[in-house]
Give the backbone structure.
Amino acid sequence: MTRDPKLRLLDMLSACEAITSYLQRVGSDEDMMFDAIRVRLIEIGEAAKDVPQSVFAGEPSIPWAEIIRMRDSLAHRYFDTSRTIIWVTARDDIPELEAAVRRIVAQYSIS
């Protein structure tokens, strides 16, 4: 049973916030942080699968299909996961994604 799309957007937002929090933990165990971020990226992609694509239409700069494909890759090809891609995604892409999801949530009066 899939969750309500509104709840999935909030799941995405929560995962983005968690990743941002992890990145601020200077001196943390790098392996543990990598694993934690990877799991949160999987959560984001899984949640995105359950949101109708029409909801994302107002944020065309976000590569929604790539987010879902990344989830599939991280979940099924975890031994091939590039640490660099995880770090760059977390550092460079998550802030933009979080802002977009916040705008969508605000637009749909989701709380």
Q: What stands out?
A: The chain has a mean pLDDT of 91. The helical segments are 5-23, 30-49, 53-56, 64-76, 83-107. The two ends are 22 Å apart (CA to CA).
